[in-house]
Amino acid sequence: MNYSVIIPAYNAEATLERTLASIKQQTFRVSEVVLVNDGSTDGTRSIAERWLNRLPLIIVDQSKNRGLTQALIDGVTASKCDWILRIDSDDFWDSNHVKIIDELRCNSNAVLISTQTRFVDVDGNLISFTGAPNPKRIRAKLMFGNHMCHSAVAFSKKAYHKAGGYRLSVKWEDYDLWIRLLSVGDFQTTSTVTVSNLIRSNSIYHSTDLRARQLADIHCNLLAIKLFWMQHPLQAIRRILSLGIHKFSLSFKQK
């Protein structure tokens, strides 16, 4: 199977070298790496150019910063392979990441696949890990929150287009896409940790206002309920009730 790696990069000169090196060291080689240089004003492109002879790298330049979701859309559009692997420009993979993804793909009919992630701070100190959700229960889990790190995920490009792709109209483009992918196909995962995700105070998540984060989460919760309530009616009712309490709490805090 052929895989395209999509890397959206904006002013990533401090971390991009390590990200690209982690792709180079994979025991299972990818077919192409699409780096979307999203209007960077630092040395991001210069670093990427140094890797043109070391990776099957394609650089897609944006004349201005258009945002993460648009960069992802452009990266998938530029890709030529049947499966998409995602990695952020400040994350990195263990050397067995793609190999494990491919093994999971070969042994299932999944359209969405994920390994697990270790979260680290800028000094490399471990913060926490993700846990592997039961594939049979993942749709119910998505009613309550996002259980997958973007850099740990692979998905079928055919299913991506069938589900409608990334959407510019939502805040959490990854969470929103996982839900819609699982409306057209199945999920597979492993408990093996293969991804290091760098937690920084200026990340999109942590720099977003708390209320905006909560509303973005609720949007995705409701989408999952809408799509999967017939498969998991009790969990849907439970989440609807808890969302009602949460909405009341948000309204009370505004007064």
Question: How would you characterize the overall build of this protein?
Answer:
The protein is of the alpha/beta class and 255 residues long. The chain has a single domain (3-254), classed as Spore Coat Polysaccharide Biosynthesis Protein SpsA, Chain A (Alpha-Beta Complex), CATH 3.90.550.10. Helices cover 38% and strands 23% of the residues. The protein starts with a strand and ends with a helix. Mean pLDDT is 92; it is low at 248-255.
Primary descriptors:
255 residues, Spore Coat Polysaccharide Biosynthesis Protein SpsA, Chain A, 9 helices, 38% helix, disordered C terminus
Topology:
Layout: E1 3-9, H1 16-24, E2 32-38, H2 44-49, E3 57-62, H3 68-78, E4 83-86, E5 92-93, H4 97-106, E6 110-120, E7 126-129, H5 138-141, E8 153-156, H6 157-163, H7 173-181, E9 186-198, H8 210-228, H9 233-254
Parallel strand pairs: 1-2, 1-4, 2-3, 6-9
Antiparallel strand pairs: 4-8, 5-9, 6-7, 6-8
Helix pairs in contact: 7-8, 8-9
What is the CATH top level name? Alpha Beta
> Percent range for helical residues?
25-40%
Enumerate how many helices there are, as a single number.
Answer: 9
Name the CATH homologous superfamily.
Spore Coat Polysaccharide Biosynthesis Protein SpsA, Chain A
Give the overall silhouette: globular
- Strand proportion: 15-25%
- Gyration radius, in Å: 18 Å
Overall average pLDDT: 92
The fold-level CATH name is Spore Coat Polysaccharide Biosynthesis Protein SpsA, Chain A
